[in-house]
Amino acid sequence: MTAETAPVTVDWTPKARLILDAASTLFYEHGIHAVGVDSIADAAGVTKRTLYDRFGSKEQVVVEYLRARNAAWQEFLRSRLDAADATPDAQLAAVFDATRDWSADRGHKGCAMINAHAEISDPAHPAHPIIVGQKHDLRDLLRSIATDAGAPDANALAQRLFILHEGALVTAGMGVEPDALDAARDVALEMIAGQQPI
To answer: What is the pTM (predicted TM-score) of this model?
Structure first.
């Protein structure tokens, strides 16, 4: 978003919600570029004019899809962290277990943010900060856990934990190694127990 571009405010009418629900399903199942506004409008049972009246552009529908999916993920993750013991190892296990459970329930085509980044890599796109922001948030969370564990270099440990998590997420999402997140959690717990990267 440029300095001259004002943030878009969506009028969240019932039809706008129908549009977002339809778009979210279509974008995740088929990809962002493959889904046109005609398909979204048809799936939502509205006209293209209604879609443009509510969102202004397909680009804004994409932004709202990713924003809503990220908000749902953050709420899910927070509930799992809150339910776990406050110890660093329990918090770390909760991250990996939450990712595994979310992926099993809502992520059969892999991580929506990673998938979106494959189609939207331009930092000027208004959805780009949401996509990379989710990953920055996770890395920051892992840094906090590493700090709480007393790691001599929390940044380095967080980096390795993050890479381990994301690699397992992609591998599981591709169906190459269905238990990748469980295996990665076990490695992560070994790393945090040693308070240093392995």
So the answer is: 0.90
